[in-house]
Write a structure and sequence with these properties.
two-stranded antiparallel ribbon, mainly alpha, 2 strands, about 70% helix, 14 helices
């Protein structure tokens, strides 16, 4: 397997993991607490990574980490949840699937990645495929929900582009940068969750198991893979892995929850998956990173760290 193929495969695990959010939420978590769930996903994971890496931002990276955390987590989660509550899940997923188009525009503006006809067509095909998978007949539209969904997609897209643009400071690994962003994003969500939803609910053992999975597998590890992938892939290639999330959610719903998966949904999955593959075949590649490739099991050594996701349709609580 080539180096790029390995990077793509590891990065793809992030949206695949995010596709499990709906199943875990409906089967393991208390109902109607989306912001508390967002908080429990982000803040414990961020604090754990800070404890493991024992690195804090320096200089300009205090505000850069805060901006990235707000874009990728702190603003993204609440807007996504608002869209999910105001819109049917399928409509919310389709609104969110325009993210690759946002990334193409922002990457051209801030990264100099000139969009090609192939990239644009691939992004449109991905959105169309997702719509076939999740959109139901007679789905309603709410302007506030649509606006929130578009803003959430724009927030995540901007987070991808600025993560790519700023990279990470010398001597700081992707694990530490992930911890900074998750902690900053969690601190943004914290007051919003308590103001809107009140005190935390009483939690059962099942609830705690669900939150543990979301915080550590679905968030800490997945976002670590996601941010590392953004460093090594072009912004458009990374964002075109996003359709794997609704595809995974649809498959889990079919296998574990007995949800219907007809010919139209299968066709949509095929189109979306084909667009995802096409997005990785672009000849335009990112510059090789200065830092060496890291593995999963590490901590820090001599100051240099060695290494150790909404589905939009999957957050309808």
């Amino acid at each position: 397997m080539s180096r790029k193929a390995a990077v793509v495969a590891l990065t793809a695990l992030a949206p695949i993991s995010w596709g499990s959010t709906y199943f875990v939420t409906t089967e393991f978590l208390p109902p109607d607490r989306p912001l508390f769930t967002g908080l429990m996903r982000a803040l414990p994971a961020g604090l754990l990574l800070l404890a493991l890496t024992r690195k804090l931002p320096q200089g300009a990276w205090w505000w850069k980490a805060a901006v990235l955390g707000a874009l990728n987590i702190g603003a993204f989660f609440p807007l996504l949840f608002l869209a999910a509550y105001r819109l049917p899940g399928g409509v919310a997923a389709v609104v969110g699937s325009v993210g690759p188009l946002f990334v193409v525009g922002l990457a051209a503006l801030f990264l100099g990645e000139k969009p090609t006809v192939k990239t644009l067509l691939t992004a449109v095909a991905a959105a169309f495929g997702v719509s076939l998978v999740v959109l139901k007949a007679g789905a309603g539209f709410d302007l506030v929900g649509v606006f929130a969904g578009l803003l959430s997609s724009l927030s995540m897209s901007a987070g991808i582009v600025f993560t790519k643009r700023w990279g990470r400071p010398e001597g700081v690994g992707a694990l530490a940068l992930t911890g900074w962003q998750l902690t900053a994003g969690g601190l943004v969500i914290l007051p919003i969750a308590f103001l809107i939803e009140g005190a935390p609910p009483a939690l059962t053992g099942t609830n705690l198991a669900g939150y543990a999975y979301l915080a550590f597998g679905n968030t800490a590890i997945s976002y670590f893979l996601w941010f590392r992938g953004i460093e090594r892939l072009s912004a458009s290639s990374a964002t075109l892995l996003g359709p794997l999330s609704p595809i995974t959610a649809a498959v889990i719903g079919w296998v574990a929850l007995g949800q219907a998966l007809g010919p139209v949904q299968v066709l949509g999955m095929t189109i979306a998956f084909g667009a995802t593959l096409a997005g990785q075949l672009s000849p335009r590649t990112a510059k090789a990173p200065a830092a060496p490739m890291e593995s999963f099991s590490s901590t820090e050594k001599n100051g240099q760290e060695v290494s150790m996701d909404l589905d939009v349709s999957a957050v309808r609580r």
